[in-house]
Specification:
- Keywords: Cell membrane, Membrane, Transmembrane, Transmembrane helix, Transport.
- Pfam families: BPD_transp_1.
- It is a multi-pass membrane protein.
- InterPro entries: MetI-like (IPR000515), MetI-like_sf (IPR035906).
- It is found in: Cell membrane.
- It is a single chain.
- The chain is mainly α.
- The chain has a single domain, classed as MetI-like (MetI-like fold).
- Helices cover 85% and strands 0% of the residues.
- Helix 6 runs antiparallel to helix 8, helix 8 runs parallel beside helix 9 and helix 9 packs antiparallel against helix 10.
- The protein is elongated.
- The relative contact order is 0.14.
- The mean pLDDT is 86.
Length: 246
């Protein structure tokens, strides 16, 4: 069903551009975009510009995981901390990334680090939210039985709660990693850099619409590849954790 919709969209795109209804400057045809993508790959532009973006996105995602999951655990186990922290977690998503980026430049400077921090900020919310939801929706009878068996807080968390909440927690990580890719591109557009956001800016300034479309395509393909990879790792991790829990 999804593949059919994609094919139909490409056929419609080709039909509109081939008919001449829209100037190629405004909407290049799929053939032009594919040719531009082929040229970018042949010239080595894809690997040169994609690598910095991926590095920043993955660093930001790791930073978000390191902060969001422990915070989600604390929030789910403490009503006081939940009352204090949850409003700030929600507020963190109301500030536009383009407003945060200049502040990061002032505080940290230019380069990969501020872009990675921006990625962490955008990836943080889904990770902490799904961690809290996953831990709060546990079957408390299992947790109470573990308590009756004498399991301490850390043993319950590691051997009972984490395995049971793993699908929700790892789904948030998967979504956060994809959002981190978006954060990296936005960061490069605002703060500069050497990744796909920079290539997008160069293509726009050159008024090369086909190149702009091709960069957007590379960004989408990269995000889809990350999504698929994290999905495979997520499935393996869930099977392992829940297998240990059983």
């Amino acid at each position: 069903m999804g593949l059919g919709a994609v094919i139909a969209l490409f056929v419609l795109w080709w039909a509109v551009t081939a008919s001449g209804l829209i100037d190629p400057y405004l909407l290049p045809g799929p053939g032009q975009v594919l040719a531009k993508m082929s040229d970018q790959m042949r010239l080595g532009l894809v690997s040169r510009y994609l690598t910095p973006t991926l590095i920043a996105a993955l660093l930001g995602a790791l930073l978000a995981v390191a902060v969001a999951i422990p915070l989600g655990v604390l929030i789910s186990h403490s009503r006081v901390l939940a009352a204090v922290a949850e409003p700030f977690v929600a507020i963190s998503q109301t500030i536009p990334l383009v407003a945060i980026a200049p502040l990061l430049v002032l505080w940290i400077g230019y380069g990969t680090v501020p872009i990675a921090v921006l990625c962490a900020i955008v990836a943080f919310f889904p990770m902490v939210t799904t961690t809290v939801v996953g831990l709060r929706s546990l079957d408390m009878r299992v947790v109470e039985n573990a308590m009756l068996d004498g399991a301490g807080a850390w043993r319950r968390l590691w051997h009972i709660e984490f395995p049971m909440a793993a699908p929700a927690i790892l789904a948030g990580v998967r979504g956060g990693v994809v959002l981190a890719m978006t954060g990296a591109v936005v960061g490069e557009l605002v703060m500069g850099g050497s990744g796909l956001g920079t290539l997008l800016t160069l293509s726009r300034d050159a008024a090369d619409t086909a190149a702009v479309f091709s960069v957007v395509a590379w960004i989408s393909l990269s995000a889809m590849a990350l999504y698929g990879l994290i999905s495979l790792l997520e499935r393996a991790a869930v099977n392992r954790l829940q297998g240990e829990a059983s």
